[in-house]
Amino acid sequence: MDAAIGGIHKEPRVSRGIASGIAHTAWTVWFSGSSLFKTCPSERVRPASRSQQKGGPAVEFPRVEFKVLGPLEAVSGGRVLPLGGPKQRTLLAALLLHVNTTVSGDRLCDAVWGATPPASAQANVRSYAAALRRVLNPDAGEDRLSLGHGGYQLRARPDEVDLHRFEELVERGRSALAGGAHPAAAGHFREALDLWRGGAFEGVAHHDALHIEVARLDEARLAVFEDYAEARLALGDSREMVGPLREQVARYPLRESLWGKLMTAQYRCHRPGDALQSYALARTALRDELGLEPGAELRRLHRAVLG
C-alpha cells in the first residue's frame, strides 16, 4: 500500500476543469505566443525610437516595475505611479499584454470598450496613451510608450514585468523538478507564487481579451501550486502541505489532481481516515456539480488507501 501511495505519477494539470480548457482555446485566438516575452522573431525586435531614427542616441529610460499579478501597478523609484481612471488603466493592461510589440488602435479599443466603443474611441485612446506617456518616466518620452504607423507600443525590459519573472521562475522550477532536484524546484516555485499579490489584473475592467488572459494566469498559478506541492511531497513535507492543499481544494473542488495530492499528503501523515474523507468530499463535488464519478487516478488512490 505504501508503494502505491508513494508511486503517484505526475497528474495532469486539469483533470476535469472546464475553465482552463476554455481559457487555453481562447488564448490562442487573442495571443500569438504562450509567454509574454516569447514572441515570434519578427515581434521580438524593438522598433527604433524616434531619437535613434534621427541618428541620436537611444534614451535609457528609468526603471519602472510593472505589476500585473495582483492590482495593476507601476512603481518607479519606490513610488506607485498614478495610472489614471479605469479605462486608462485597462489600456495600460492591454499594452502590457503585448509589451514590446505594436498594438493597433482598433485592438486597444476592443480591450477598453469591448464590442461597443464610442465614436470618440480612437481619440480617447490617443489621450489615454499621452497621459500614460507623461506618467511613465516623462524623460523617456516616446522611448517608453510610442505611437507608430501600426499602433502603440509599450517598451519594457523583461525584468521590469512581474509576469515575466513569474514565467522565468516557473521554467527553472519545472526544469529542476524534471531533473529530480526537488529542493531547487520547490524554491523556484515558492518564489514564483510569492510574486502574486491577489488576482491577476485585479481591479481592471475585464472585456473579452483581458478576461481570457486572467483565466489563463489563474490556471497557470494553480498549476504552479500543484508543481510546488509535488516537489514538497517528494521532500517528505507532507504534514506541512496538508493545510495549503485543503485551502486549494476548497477553492477548486472540481480539480481532481489537487484532491489526489491532499489524499497523498494525509496518508503519508498516517491519517488514512482523513484521506478517505477527502475522497468522499471530492466524489460528492464531482457528482453534484458535473454528474461524474472520480477519474481513474483518484479511484486508484482510494483503493490504495483502503489497502
Automatic annotation (TrEMBL):
GO biological process: phosphorelay signal transduction system; regulation of DNA-templated transcription
All copies of domain OmpR/PhoB-type, residue ranges: 56-156
Location of the DNA-binding region in this protein: 56-156
Pfam families xref list: BTAD, Trans_reg_C
Sorted UniProt keywords: DNA-binding, Transcription, Transcription regulation, Two-component regulatory system
Domain of life the protein comes from: Bacteria
Keyword DNA-binding: yes
GO molecular function term, any single one: DNA binding
Family (UniProt): Belongs to the AfsR/DnrI/RedD regulatory family.
PANTHER family registered for this protein in UniProt: TRANSCRIPTIONAL REGULATOR REDD, TRANSCRIPTIONAL REGULATOR REDD-RELATED
Protein name: OmpR/PhoB-type domain-containing protein
Organism: Streptomyces kasugaensis
